[in-house]
Write a structure and sequence with these properties.
CATH class of the largest domain: Alpha Beta
Bound molecules: flavin mononucleotide
Largest sheet: 8 strands, mixed
Number of helices: 14
CATH topology of the largest domain: Rossmann fold
Strand content: 15-25%
Number of domains: 2
Shape: elongated
CATH architecture of the largest domain: 3-Layer(aba) Sandwich
Strand order of the largest sheet: 12-11-8-13-16-17-18-19
Structural class: alpha/beta
Distance between the termini: 22 Å
Number of strands: 19
């Protein structure tokens, strides 16, 4: 059953014959205690009246991106409603998801309220397709579904059976109860980290050589930011200690910006007492210039040697002072991945090491995708196939939630 603060669901409705079943779905979701915001495409309003849905959900049904000129809604607030709706809700559920909507989502088109808001929506998306069997089997539709699945979208159905057009085969909208159950599973999972305070480090560090030059590395911060965003969405209080990155901070996350490994160490240690889970994703410099120059170094010498000294190992320090805390480290390796990761897990007293092969094209530091292996004490290594970093983040957090449940 949903918790006291009701999770919020956007119910997107496409222009398919099964749109009438979304009224029953809306009723079930409301009955289960969820707040439901209906959004209908123009085609959907040909099949079902907004009045039906507003009566069932007690919400104004959104049917258009633009308020008619001269109407009181044509204000700044309504002008950015698609962003507000995207950020205020926990799940985007689309039922029926027509062939056209699947194509628009896959291509990132933004021609109406639902598709525009979809692009701004940071959380999980659940799609319940419904269409004629030939439309579903068409290679274009199948390619769109494969692309969306690879991006981490969730699907429920379609079921096989007799369709409104008289054909038999896959294409029927899943039963409203099955769709509501799939939505519940995503929403309830979403809160499995409630009560946890998770401190994450992310990004690279920059170690000054002189006032204008630094030693740094290729970490983009994307994996750490994806973890922070997903941990927050799953109910955790999140403190993100971030090195310099070109990313927008995730909403509702406390962001502490640092530059050097020493500043990152201080920031982590100053907050550790509040923390139940530490996840060290940052690529912290192992060495820093021993004596950074006070003035900009001149190009006058033919060769320049910079003496480096080790930085303090943040993960090892957190592991030493572990207490009841769960400690998660990342091991970015270019070879002997499992051996190095297990050695690091043991040496740094980590409960979980996320081993990350860097150097593969498109994955690792700078890409939007990743491919990792989860290493836990006394368990077989668990490979997580290549996927978007937000999807990988959820798999890592599944392991965190599982380890925390075992600790309890
Ligand atoms: C009577 C009728 C039933 C339709 N049923 C479906 C359907 O079940 N699934 C689908 O993908 N398209 C169906 N269509 C086609 C869509 O309505 C059409 O592709 C529309 O552009 C989809 O708009 P949307 O992007 O707002 O969903 C149907 C069209 C008609 C006229």
């Amino acid at each position: 059953m949903p918790k006291a603060a009701a999770p919020r669901v956007i119910l997107g409705i496409g222009g398919g014959i099964a749109a009438y079943k979304s009224a029953e779905l809306a009723r079930l979701l409301v009955q289960q205690g969820y707040e439901v915001q209906p959004v209908m495409t123009r085609a959907a309003t040909e099949f079902l009246t907004p009045l039906t849905l507003s009566s069932l959900t007690h919400k104004r049904v959104i049917t258009s991106l633009f308020a008619p000129a001269g109407q009181p809604e044509a204000t700044l607030a309504s002008a950015i409603e698609h962003i507000g709706v995207a950020l205020e809700n926990d799940l985007l559920l689309v039922a029926p998801a027509t062939a056209d909507l699947l194509a628009q989502f896959a291509q990132g088109l933004a021609g109406d309220f639902l598709t525009t808001m979809h692009l701004a929506f940071p959380g999980p998306v659940l799609l319940a397709p419904a269409m004629n069997t030939n439309m579903w089997n068409h290679p274009a539709t199948q390619a769109n579904v494969a692309l969306l699945r690879a991006r981490g979208y969730h699907f429920v159905g379609p079921a096989a059976g007799e369709l409104a057009c008289g054909m038999e085969g896959p294409g029927r909208l899943a039963e409203p109860a099955a769709i509501a159950a799939a939505a519940s599973a995503l929403l309830d999972k979403k809160h499995d980290l409630a009560g946890e305070t998770i401190l994450l480090t992310a990004g690279p560090t920059q170690e000054p050589i002189d006032p204008v030059r630094v030693i740094t590395n290729r970490s983009s911060g994307k994996m750490g930011y994806a973890l922070a965003q997903r941990a927050q969405a799953r109910g955790a209080r999140v403190i993100l200690v971030s090195g310099p990155v070109a990313l927008s901070p995730p909403a509702n996350v406390e962001l502490l910006r640092v530059e050097t490994a020493a500043q990152m160490y201080d920031a982590v240690m100053s907050r550790l007492a509040e923390v139940s889970v530490f996840i060290g994703v940052a690529a912290v410099a192992d060495y820093r210039p021993a004596r950074p120059a006070a003035e900009k170094l001149k190009k006058s010498v033919s060769a320049l040697a910079i003496e480096l000294e080790p930085t303090t190992d943040i993960l090892a320090a957190v592991g030493r002072d572990k207490g009841h805390r769960l400690v998660v480290g990342f091991a970015a390796e270019t070879g002997n991945l499992l051996g190095e990761a297990e050695r690091k897990r043991e040496a740094k007293n980590c409960d979980l090491v996320v081993a990350n092969l860097v150097g593969a094209p498109g994955a690792g530091f700078e890409g939007d995708e990743n491919e990792v292996v989860l290493i836990r004490r006394g368990q077989q290594p668990e490979p997580v196939a290549r996927a978007a970093k937000t999807v990988i983040a959820d798999r890592i957090l599944d392991a965190v939630a599982d380890l925390r449940a075992r600790q309890a």
